[in-house]
Amino acid sequence: MPAFRALKTLVRSLSTTARSTSELAGTAPPHRCYIFLHTPQPPSEYPAKYATPVQRALLLRTAKWGGSVNFAWSKDQQSIRARPPGEEGKQEYHLTAFAHPRGKLEATVSMDNIEEVEEQLRMHAEGISGATSSNSNDVHLYVCTHGARDCRCGDTGGAVAQAVRDELRKRRDADPSDPSTCIRLAEVAHVGGHKYAANLLVYPHGEWLGEVKPEDVPEILDAILALPTRSRNIDEIPICPRHWRGRMGLSKDEQIQLMQ
Fold it and tell me: What is 85-127 written as a DSSP string?
């Protein structure tokens, strides 16, 4: 009888995984370049719908060629003090952007230089000579914790972000030279797909993961650290297929096809 119950549990687990994988693949918004504007406050303090003049203007320009613009926070990342109410149009942001195949680009943007920065980002996304890429080997993890937009992101996303911090601390305490020292964690605003919380974005690889739970964190970190630190080619096997929503540079149909 115990063996029968164990078999039933296994079958249920496998069927849930298959259903989850089928539902998740193709849910990452297609993009060629993802741009994170650094904020001094965490997503837990963002309003439900968070936008600023710089973010809207940059999104309007970059969306034409496949760019997407979001906000991110980390206590370790550079950010610029927020302007007082009424002066939002004067806000400056440090930004980190990722594109396939050139990886990471860093810049500072404001309404004064937005056209110049947009052109720099476009050249980076299109692989045109002249755009300066970062040669960093850092792996960037972004967890959506935008609770005011959806409580699932605040609750599950917050728990996963804390689980990542705890796991990284444990590994680094055990071995200061552990490979996980290359991982940088940040929290991000709404990425789309509340029902897939927690959502975890992996860059420069460009992989989007969903339905992540705190107990999944060690396995996901191991899978990420086993890969070279670069954007994934369009035909490479997805990392963590059970959680895979999609990949930078792929259309919805291409994401679904890659999982078949």
Answer: TT-GGG--EEEEEEETTTEEEEEEE-TTTHHHHHHHHHHHHHT
CB count, 10 Å around CB of 190? 20
Give residues with Cβ within 8 angstroms of 100, minimum separation 6: 32, 206, 231, 232, 248, 249
Q: What is the mean pLDDT of residues 109-130?
A: 92
Q: For residue 68, what are the β-bridge partners?
A: 34
Burial 80-110 (b: 16+ CB within 10 A, else e): eeeeeeeeeeebbbbbbbbbbebbbbebebb
Token pair, residue 257, equals 């096809």
Amino acid at residue number 132: T
Q: Is the pTM of this model over 0.85?
A: yes
Eight-class DSSP state of 62: H
Specify the DSSP class assigned to residue 25: T
Give percent of the chain above pLDDT 90.
Answer: 83
Q: Confidence class of residue 131 from pLDDT cuts 50, 70 and 90?
A: low
Residue 39, Cβ neighbours under 10 Å: how many? 25
Closest CA to 204 of 128, 124, 139, 123: 139
The strand pairing partners of 213, in sequence order, are none
pLDDT at 142 over 80: yes
Pairing outcome for strands 33-38 and 67-73 = parallel
**Position 252 pLDDT exceeds 60:** yes
Residue 145 to residue 160: CA distance in whole angstroms = 9
* Number of residues assigned to the chain: 260
